[in-house]
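Subject: for your reference before the review

Hello V.,

The reviewers asked for a structural picture of the protein, and I figured it would be easier to keep everything in one thread rather than splitting it across files. Below is the amino acid sequence we used in the manuscript, unchanged from the supplementary table.
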Amino acid sequence: MWGMSDTPPESPESAGSPDFDAMTRDIAEVPAVEVLVTVAVNLMSAAAVKLGLTEEGDKYKDLDEARKLVHALAGLLDASATEISSFHAAPLRDGLKSLQLAFREASLVPDEPGQGPGEKYTGPVFG
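And here is what came back from the structure prediction:
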């Protein structure tokens, strides 16, 4: 018995589907700190693109999207502060601050101190 459908897992229909068992094993071997750092770096990279800080410049600039990403990054770093070592956390916090400052500079009407993206978690960010 194979579950709800009577199609065995090795059927031609499933030949192109991902191997979820292998993916689960792979993710099970990754330490939580590495997952957190990877997610943080991905958020930082996406925020940098949305802030226009890449070689493409303003091509992908979208401050509304950047605000969401920076805010999510700040929340992640705040929530995981006790779980990741300062070895990992310090450069991530520095990157977050740089993104927050870049956001402030890119805004036509800058947020009040303490009201910028992620400042709910980090406190006011000043240059």
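For the response letter, the relevant points are probably these. Confidence is low (pLDDT under 50) at residues 1-5. Residues 15 and 30 are 27 Å apart (CA to CA).

Happy to draft the paragraph if you're swamped.

O.
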